[in-house]
Amino acid sequence: MHAFLSQPLRAAVLGLALCAGAMAQSAAPVTPASAPAASAWAAGEYRWHIDDRNGEPPYTLRLYVQPLPSGDYVLTGSLLLDDAELGAHGSARLRDGQLVLDLTASGGVLQAPMDEGKRRLYPKGKAPARVDSAGFATMRALLDPQSLEGVVQRYQTNVVTGHHVQGPMYANSVIRRMP
Questions:
Q1: Which domain holds residue 160?
Q2: What is the residue range of the signal peptide feature (predicted)?
Q3: Domain count of the fold of the chain
Q4: Tens of pLDDT along 24-47?
Q5: Are the C-beta atoms of residues 112 and 129 closer than 8 Å to each other?
């Protein structure tokens, strides 16, 4: 009885497979995607200084820009601080005549020399000579599409050795294109 059922079952499966193949061949051809939108921002690497205008040295933002067919952009690179280099990634789009960049940067340092900002997190005389830290920042930049300069809003926080928290803090900064 087993052999009798298996032969018709095999024939049915083979018939379904042949019909599915024939139906796939007769389906309407796939039309190619529309041509990519004209890109206002060329692919490549770009660098900026981000200045909080608080007397401290500016940060350096380095991003590689890749246009997408939708007209948006993928961004990846780094944010260089005075004592750390954070990985940065995000997206950008042209809206209301401005390039809008949304970025996240994260990273940390191991055994970095103590700076005054971190020293203030510890009781007097209890700060270690060197410190580990990890943190992140979220940023939104509004840039002029021609000059690629503008403003950037940033929210960030950092946790250092001993679970001391630096931040959260907000900065509204100037962003200038580097040559």
A1: 44-177
A2: 1-24
A3: 1
A4: 444 444 433 444 445 678 999 999
A5: no
